[in-house]
Amino acid sequence: MIKKIFLVASIFLSILSCSRNIIVENIIEQYDDGGKKVVHYYQEKKNGELTWIKETWFYQEGMKHLEGPIVDGKRNGKFKAYYKSGTVLSEGDFIDGKRDGKAVVYYENGKINYEGFYQNGKECGIWKFYDEDGNLYHEVNKDSK
């Protein structure tokens, strides 16, 4: 029985060591007090190659301010920004380093402040603006500018 457990544990450890993907944190910029400001995260493959996978910005007090995925050195995917309280401030998508898709900015109470769309880095379509209670009070057509 003990030999079987040892064999299963050895196989499991071998699989883990073969598929290890270590995340490496690289502090790009710091505040005067030494706290992290901008951090890039890299994934280290078995061969030692590093691939940049994520970018995170921090407030001076240490809370996360902005975070999102990096693909081929560019912002790709959903980025989120946060208030110091930790609630979501905004979220939006990037493709090849440019804003593309829906963007939403929130009040700290969680209600939508405004929302709209980007295409190839430029605002487009109808942008909607709300008060802190969630009532729509203004719309702008960015295509008509």
Structure, explained:
There is one protein chain. The protein has 145 residues and is mainly beta. It has one domain: Single Sheet (Histone H3 K4-specific methyltransferase SET7/9 N-terminal domain). Helix content is 12%, strand content 57%. The chain has 1 helix and 11 strands. Strands 1, 2, 3, 4, 5, 6, 7, 8, 9, 10 and 11 form an 11-stranded antiparallel sheet that branches. A hairpin with a 2-residue loop joins strand 9 and strand 10. The chain is flat and about 55 Å long. The N and C termini lie far apart (75 Å). 5% of the residues are buried. The N terminus is likely disordered.
Brief characterization of the structure:
Helix content is 12%, strand content 57%. The chain is mainly beta and 145 residues long. Strands 1, 2, 3, 4, 5, 6, 7, 8, 9, 10 and 11 form an eleven-stranded antiparallel β-sheet that branches.
Task: Describe how the helices and strands are arranged.
Layout: H1 2-18, E1 22-30, E2 36-44, E3 50-58, E4 64-71, E5 74-75, E6 77-82, E7 88-95, E8 98-106, E9 112-119, E10 122-130, E11 136-141
Antiparallel strand pairs: 1-2, 2-3, 3-4, 4-5, 4-6, 6-7, 7-8, 8-9, 9-10, 10-11
